Amino acid sequence: MDENGLKRQVKSSIVSCLRLRISPEEIADDLTLFRTGLGLDSIDALELVLELERKYGVVIADENEGRQILQTVNTIVDAIERQRAGGEASGS
């Protein structure tokens, strides 16, 4: 899947898992997901971490890593691609 397809899929995952009342297309790739941007909170972060682990195999080891990864759709996609590349390199 190309990067744009993955971004669309991640946006759809965010909207469906958090039951947001917006369409995935309304989420800009670089929109901040927490605070002033989309306005997500810590409960949303937990649900999103679980969704990313289940659907994309993304492992978020700690809170600091989570803050880095969950900033925007772009940072989530980067993390998915990094972890997939690492898994392929190690033969997983």
What amount of the residues lies in strands?
A: under 5%
The coarse overall form would be globular
CATH class: Mainly Alpha
Strand segment tally: 0
Rounded Rg: 13 Å
Q: At the fourth CATH level, what is the homologous superfamily?
A: ACP-like
Oligomer: single chain
Structural write-up:
The chain is globular and about 35 Å long. The chain contains 4 helices and no strands. 16% of the residues are buried. The protein has a single domain, classed as ACP-like (Non-ribosomal Peptide Synthetase Peptidyl Carrier Protein, Chain A, Orthogonal Bundle). The protein is mainly α and 92 residues long.
Write the layout of secondary structure elements.
Layout: H1 3-17, H2 42-56, H3 63-69, H4 73-89
Q: TL;DR of this structure?
A:
With 92 residues, the protein is mainly α. The chain has helices at residues 3-17, 42-56, 63-69, 73-89.
Descriptors:
92 residues, mainly alpha, Non-ribosomal Peptide Synthetase Peptidyl Carrier Protein, Chain A, globular
